[in-house]
Amino acid sequence: MSLTMSCAFTTSLQTPEHVRIAEELGYERAWLYDSPAVCADVWTQLSRSAERTENISLGPGVLVPSLRHPMVTATAIAELVEHVGQERVVVGVGSGFTGRLALGQRPCTWAYVADYIRALKALLRGERTEWDGSVIEMLHHTGFAAPRPIDVPFVVAAFGPKGMSVASELGDGAITLAAMPYDGFDWVTHIVFGTVLEPGENPGSDRAVDAAGHAASVMLHFAIEFDKLDMIPGGREWASAYDDVPPETRHLTVHDGHLWAVSERDRPFVTGDVLASQGLAQDESAWRDKIAEWEEGGATEIAYQPAGPDVPRELEAFAKAVRN
């Protein structure tokens, strides 16, 4: 395989210790989520990961601009660069899926995301820029942050024409959850959820559901938020499990366990058939075939997010499947 081995970690369950394990297994990059309602602080976890590793690339995957002033983010990037060097840092930025929806907010506008990236890049170059009507500049002396200019790649989580336009203009690459053509990008990171089945294992086994069931729930949560329930077999019946939750707090219940576990409301609907039909519980051969399809479609990097009670097993099984 010519794909980069890469690993996306949810920091509410997976820890910097899992980043260390991923490095030992040969993963080249660890992305950590920026979803503070369900994950530990992304920059704290990146710094802790830096202290435990030597070679693996590190970065937020992806930042939600509305959560922090660009100066806060610029300083955090400079701190990580000071730890591990520019060559090991990458910055993912998006409009905010889990990071904002779990707070009861819609994603940021792409115009806001673009302005944020421009301001952030200007700060890292050591320039003055404007934000919230004021001129700002990184004023850190030696020893307080890495010296400017700081030149690290930016990858944009792009969905739809507006996101693709921002990624094309301001990004070095794109991050996607969907299998879609990304013409014109030399760097396309495809995020992957699921588990590698043991020989003869049923997709509906307790182990498989524990390791991959959260991924089926992610698809439902997306469908609920964006009124796409018909895209999921039985999606409307599944969504009805939330009918008794008041609208003003539904986003909290929907995101219970989001990205790392199956909630009690979702579990009756997460069957082996669902996991198999969505390609979330497959054997090694099927995973290799699917990765080949993504590569044919333009993916240059696979970012695998492990979950469940045995994350080291998931990391090792996926690495083995890709390499065989």
Automatic annotation (TrEMBL):
Keywords (A to Z) from UniProt: Oxidoreductase
GO molecular function: oxidoreductase activity, acting on paired donors, with incorporation or reduction of molecular oxygen
Pfam families the UniProt entry points to: Bac_luciferase
Gene3D superfamilies for this protein: Luciferase-like domain (3.20.20.30)
Entry-linked InterPro entries: F420-G6PD/mer (IPR050564), Luciferase-like_dom (IPR011251), Luciferase-like_sf (IPR036661)
Ranges of residues in domain Luciferase-like: 16-183
The protein, known as: 5,10-methylenetetrahydromethanopterin reductase
Organism: Haloechinothrix alba
Upper classification of the organism: Bacteria, Bacillati, Actinomycetota, Actinomycetes, Pseudonocardiales
